[in-house]
């Protein structure tokens, strides 16, 4: 999801300005409808929707004009694939609260990947997390979030802060248990806040300690989602296009 899709129109499809084009993606359980923006008379741009599973879906390019029936201009298939970022996000989501798994992730800290790799990892994993279908009861602290906060334990927030993952930290802060995780000490006595300070992650420390902290600048082009029952509407601020998703 959130990748740019370019649509090239054929000569016969280049029509008047009052025609509105949109794409319809039909999967096994979910359907997405995306608006488009015209780059020039022969090209359209839109955003790929975040899908609920890895499968090949049908995609139709439709044209709409006031007072006329909707026209299907072209049809094709579109494949959603499971990549490493999706695997990583799924692993982290399922190991929330699993101390053995969270302690294992600390091996990543010893290798200290280069800053460029960390930034890439942060962007991809945070985006994949945003598209995961998390259970309604999901919590940053795991199923045992009712445990006393005095019990030292590793959390997903410790993981994100230790590696300096700004976007992932922001995402976790918005989830149930995100704010509560900030005051939890691990076995070394460190909280996510003290870890950020100790490692010199100033932006991260600011994000964790300021009540009115704004989301990372790099997210300003990503989609903002509003949910309502079986539907959700996503606005991609960078391209100013919308995605309507409905469960079949």
TrEMBL record:
SUPFAM superfamilies: Ankyrin repeat. GO terms for molecular function: MAP-kinase scaffold activity. One of its GO terms (cellular component) is membrane. One of its GO terms (biological process) is adrenergic receptor signaling pathway. PANTHER family: A-KINASE ANCHOR PROTEIN 13, AGAP007712-PA. This is AKP13 protein. It comes from Serilophus lunatus. The gene is Akap13_2.
């Amino acid at each position: 999801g959130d990748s740019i899709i370019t649509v090239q129109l054929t000569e016969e499809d280049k029509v008047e300005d009052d025609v509105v084009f949109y794409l319809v993606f039909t999967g096994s359980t979910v359907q997405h409808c995306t608006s488009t923006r015209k780059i020039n008379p022969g090209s359209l741009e839109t955003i790929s929707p975040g899908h609920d599973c890895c499968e090949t879906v049908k995609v139709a390019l439709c044209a709409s004009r006031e007072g006329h029936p909707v026209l299907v201009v072209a049809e094709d298939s579109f494949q959603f694939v499971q990549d490493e970022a999706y695997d990583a996000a799924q692993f982290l989501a399922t190991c929330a609260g699993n101390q053995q798994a969270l302690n294992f992730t600390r091996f990543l800290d010893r290798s200290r990947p280069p800053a460029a790799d960390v930034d890439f990892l942060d962007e991809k994993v945070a985006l994949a997390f945003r598209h995961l279908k998390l259970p309604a009861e999901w919590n940053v602290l795991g199923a045992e979030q009712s445990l006393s906060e005095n019990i030292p334990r590793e959390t997903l927030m410790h993981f994100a802060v230790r590696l300096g993952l700004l976007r992932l930290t922001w995402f976790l802060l918005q989830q149930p248990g995100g704010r509560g995780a900030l005051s939890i000490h691990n076995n070394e006595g460190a909280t996510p806040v003290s870890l950020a300070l100790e490692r010199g992650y100033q932006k991260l420390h600011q994000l964790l300690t300021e009540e009115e902290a704004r989301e990372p600048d790099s997210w300003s082009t990503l989609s903002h989602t509003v949910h309502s029952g079986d539907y959700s509407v996503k606005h991609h601020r960078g391209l100013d296009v919308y995605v309507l998703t409905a469960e079949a």
